[in-house]
UniProtKB/TrEMBL annotation:
This is Aldo/keto reductase. GO terms for molecular function: oxidoreductase activity. Residues 15-314 form the NADP-dependent oxidoreductase domain. GO terms for cellular component: cytosol. Pfam families: Aldo_ket_red. Belongs to the shaker potassium channel beta subunit family.
Length: 325
């Protein structure tokens, strides 16, 4: 396993991180499988375990806290997030100082730890003054309950720059990390966010590297959906919306590139992300140990320049630029 700094901070995290977005597994056979996955991750050098208070109503945090207590805390990098409702009250959601302070205490209790290494604003809160949110997050760092803080989805480049102006004005602890979606078929962060992060020294920990399973190669054009796959049961149909002829044609060509390199599409897709120096790590979930074992092979997998050029030709991505005149 290779490690990278989170932006310009001194914190080092594994290139492959384990995500903990799960249903409540307590008392089920899948709970033991999930514990095996965490054990396999740790034994293979994964030190970053990502979670959120909203995942399964806190059950994901409690599972992770119970499982990780077997490992030395100093060897772990644990994250969580705040924003989504944790109750029915009017203050049980968002990024107010009150909700942030109450949420971190519940998160620490769930995770069985005195601090989290990374704490993310899970969304942008249109109803709370940004200065209030940034002061609260900075104060958590000052208190020692959080070591570094960051933001997740829906914080574009303009919001990051606005946040930086507030941080500079009040001499607050800075934003250290951003966690956006990023993969071969969803590259929106290259339009603006990636450049802002590079300029400001903000790390990028990306999720959904396999595009809901599209980039595993199990969904193929003209073939039925694999039995039990996400596309057969996911209620919000995210993967189904990705199964377009255009995307499936790209998958066919990408599979051939992977074959030529002696690997599979999942490894290629994750390794492709890690070719970018702005990226701190790739966060991937796993429902069985074999999936994780495969994902781990992406760390250190070098893609030759000619293969990278072929991949770019297949993807056909164009960074947005507006020219006048």
């Amino acid at each position: 396993m290779r490690y990278r700094n989170v932006g310009k901070s001194g914190l080092k995290i594994s290139e492959i991180a384990l995500g903990s977005w799960m249903t409540d597994l307590k008392g089920t056979a899948q709970e033991e499988v999930a514990k095996d996955i965490v054990r396999l991750a740790f034994d293979n050098g994964v030190n970053f375990f990502d979670c959120a208070d909203a995942y399964s109503g806190g059950a994901a945090e409690r599972f992770l806290g119970e499982t990780l207590k077997a490992y030395p805390r100093r060897e772990l990098v644990i994250s969580s997030k705040v924003y989504f409702p944790t109750g029915t009250g009017p203050n049980d959601r968002g990024l107010s100082r009150k909700h942030i302070f109450e949420s971190i205490d519940r998160t620490l209790e769930n995770l069985r730890t005195d601090y989290v290494d990374l704490y993310y604003c899970h969304r942008f809160d249109e109803h709370t003054d940004l200065t209030e949110t940034l002061r609260a997050m900075s104060d958590l760092v000052a208190s020692g309950k959080v070591l570094y803080y960051g933001v997740s989805e829906e914080w574009g480049g303009a919001r990051l720059e606005e946040a930086q102006r507030i941080i500079d004005r009040y001499n607050l602890y800075p934003i250290t990390v951003v966690q956006p979606q990023y993969n071969m078929v969803d590259r929106y962060i290259e339009h603006e966010i990636m450049g802002v992060c590079a300029k400001r020294g903000i790390g990028i920990t990306v999720f959904s590297p396999l595009a809901q399973g599209l980039l595993t190669g199990k969904y193929r054009k003209g073939q039925p959906l694999p039995a039990g796959s996400r596309a057969t049961w996911q209620s919000d149909h995210q993967i189904n919306d990705l199964l377009t002829d255009e995307n499936l044609d790209k998958v066919e060509r990408l599979v051939k590139v992977a074959d030529e390199l002696g690997t599979n599409l999942a490894i290629l897709a994750m390794a492709w992300i890690l070719q970018r120096p702005e990226i701190s790590c790739v966060i991937a979930g796993a429902s069985k140990p074999s999936q994780l074992a495969n994902n781990l092979k992406a760390s250190g997998f070098e893609i030759p320049a000619d293969a990278m050029a072929e991949i770019e030709d297949i993807l056909g991505f164009k960074r947005f630029e507006r020219h006048v005149g």
